[in-house]
Structures are given as structure tokens and as C-alpha cells.
Amino acid sequence: MGRLDGRVAFVTGAARGQGRSHAVRLAEEGADVIAVDLCHDLATVNYPLGSPEDLEETALLVEKTGREIVTAQADVRDARQLRSALQEGMERFGRLDIVIAQAGIMALGGEPALQAWSDSIDTILVGTINAIQIALPHLTEGASIIATGSTAALMDTSKNDNPGAEPGGTAYVVAKRLLSQYVHHLAAELAPRGIRANVIHPTNCNTPMLQSEPMYRAFRPDLEHPTRADAEPAFGVQQAMKISFIEPEDISNAIVWLASDDARFVTGIQLRVDGGGYLKWYDYHI
């Protein structure tokens, strides 16, 4: 028996990367999945986003676990699209227990710069709020909401020499901070109803977002065309442990814990899976 037998999870950004990993890991623990993704590129994002074929691959991987999945191409910036996708899944499964607001972008170097700002805020912050709020009417006692933040949201970015210190990168940090605050206050409202809400903060994670030319340039601005080999040693600046990045499965394992009864009294936390990155920025405090 899995820790999530009989439950249904709604996962955004599920075509690849962390979202795919979460969908598959939840299914391995017994959950059926409603999976959505944009499935096309954005002009302000200078690396390819997930495709329809990627989302199909996620579906195949979930089905290999023996669980069922409903997929839809939907833009998290549009609550109507998300609501339609969720309704299709609800008609199939009849319930909703877990919400994973994962979808995100990194619009480093995006032009026009203010459009990169807007696309980032709309996808990461508004998209997270949309995913959670369309799900709220369907959640009952025992449900779990998990939003993906970022170690970047916890860093002191007041200095302008931080990687990604331009509109698209700054919007990423702002959006992750604000969604964390939103979930904190939401958790307080939901706690008396027995519904939990938490944020998980990954450090650099080995996904197509990290392994992209814009991110390589952000970490190695001294090079005109940095490669993965050039950037990986610099990725280590984010962590106290001697690692360049973590794997999506490291986040997925924490997701499963937060979604399960193992964490039944855990709500309102900001869970860091960051290789000790936070330790490099802050002294101990309660």
C-alpha cells in the first residue's frame, strides 16, 4: 500500500522537470493525477518550455505505476482554463485531495524587459494563486496544498551583483516571496478546517530551467557563451553543501511527505530543500 492510496492530486507544470517528477512520485504512492501544463513556448523565456509530447510522456510514466491520469494543456495565468481542466479531472475521479502548484518560468534576458516581468509575475504568483483558489471549493478535511517557492525567495538580493538581477530574474524572486506569504496566510485560514498548506523551497534543481543558456550566463557573466561545464561549478555558490544542484526527485520525496498523513499536523511551514543554502545567508533565529 502507498501513502497516498485513494487520493487525487492536481499538479501544474507537469509536462517535465519537477512537475513531472512530482506527478510520477505521487502516483507511485497511490494517487491518481490531474496534470496540466502550458505546452508551448513564451517569447520572453529564452529556453524551450514543455511540449504536448512532454505532457504525453508524463502521462505514460504515471500509467506505468498503475495509476490513472487526466492531462490538459492549460495556462495557469488563465483561471478559466485551469478550472476547465480541473473539472475534467473531477468528473473522472470524483474528488480532490492534493494540490501541487508547481508551474513556473525563468525569464532571464526576456524582451521586452517589462513583459518578462509581467509574464513571470503572472505565471509564478498569479498562476499559483489561480491553481489553489480554483481547487479550494473541492477540498475537504485532510487535504494538502503545496506550492513551490525557491531558495531565491529567502536570499538577501539587495545587492545588484546577484545572478539574474534584471526584470525577469527579479520578478522571479518577488513572485516566489509573495506566493510564500500568500500560502502562509491561507494556511491560517484553512487550519480550523483541517486543510493544510505549505511551501517548499528548492535550491538549484537539475531541470531544463537550470540547464539552459540564460542560467549559464547568469552564473558566468564573465563568459560570452558559457556552457554547462562552465556554469556548474558556479551553481555551488547557492548551497552550503558541496553540490551544484539537487534532483527533482529530492523535491518530490518532500512533496509526498507533505501530502501524506505522515505530515498530518504540518501546516504553514516554509520547507527548505536547499543543500544548506539558507545557512549561508542567515544567522540562527526562531
Q: Which stretches of 5+ consecutive residues score pLDDT under 50?
A: none
The first-level CATH class name of the largest domain? Alpha Beta
Counting structural domains, the number is 2
| Largest pleated sheet | 7 strands, parallel
Order of helices and strands: EHEHEHEHEHEHHHE
InterPro entries: NAD(P)-bd_dom_sf, SDR_fam, SDR_subfam_1
GO molecular function, one term: oxidoreductase activity
Keywords: NAD, Oxidoreductase
Organism: Mycobacterium fragae
What attributes characterize this protein structure?
NAD, 7 strands, 2 domains, alpha/beta, 40% helix, 286 residues, seven-stranded parallel sheet, Rossmann fold
In short:
The protein has 286 residues and is an alpha/beta fold.
Descriptive notes:
- By secondary structure, the chain is an alpha/beta fold.
- The protein folds into two domains: 8-205 and 246-271, NAD(P)-binding Rossmann-like Domain (Rossmann fold, 3-Layer(aba) Sandwich); 211-244, no CATH class.
- Helix content is 40%, strand content 13%.
- It contains eight helices and seven strands.
- The chain has a seven-stranded parallel sheet, with helices on both faces.
- Helix 5 (167-190) links the parallel strand 5 and strand 6 (196-202).
- Helix 4 packs parallel to helix 5 and helix 6 crosses helix 7 (228-235).
- The longest helix is centred in the middle third of the chain and has 24 residues, at 167-190.
- The radius of gyration is 18 Å and the shape is globular.
- The mean pLDDT is 95.
- This is 3-ketoacyl-ACP reductase.
- GO terms for molecular function: oxidoreductase activity.
- Belongs to the short-chain dehydrogenases/reductases (SDR) family.
- Keywords: NAD, Oxidoreductase.
